[in-house]
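Trying the structure run again after the queue cleared.
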Amino acid sequence: MKKQIIVLSILAVVIYGSAKSADWKYIGNSIIHEKIYYGFYDEETKEQKPNGNIVVWIKFISVQQIDSIKNAERDSIGTIAVKKLMQKYFPPYAIMQPNTSLDEMFGFLQLEVTTNNFRTAKKLMIHTEFDCKHRKSKGLSTIAYNDVGGVENSSSTENEWIDIVPESSGETMLKVLCSKY
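Done. Tokens:
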């Protein structure tokens, strides 16, 4: 009886875990401690609150790490990206950028394929709320990681609302995340 419960518990975790896996979408670059990072939001956990605000997890991964994986796994990343394009998938970031070329769109798609299909060490995860109507955002919780992937520090202290600066990475995030609402 005990073994059956353990097996059922493991099975439930496997089924639930695979059903709710992250779907990271490229959202632009940010500078953190004088280094450039690619930003991604998780489409699977994105939610719209009754007041219209969007709550989402955002993670940042170093440009060097993603580019290293892209170079090492070029063929498999390219194959997956082409399949997604043939299924008429276009990265939300590319759709929101005026005059995005096919090469640029393919590059954004490769970033998404890389972060969704290969192990990457994140630098920072921020649970963020966006007020689409008033163009504001606030951090709900933050986890910072060291260079080997261990938690450096974390905070579940909710920040104050801040205005989103025009022509910033924050404005790009706002446009992408609030485009359907």
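The mean pLDDT is 86. Worth checking whether this holds up in the mutant runs.
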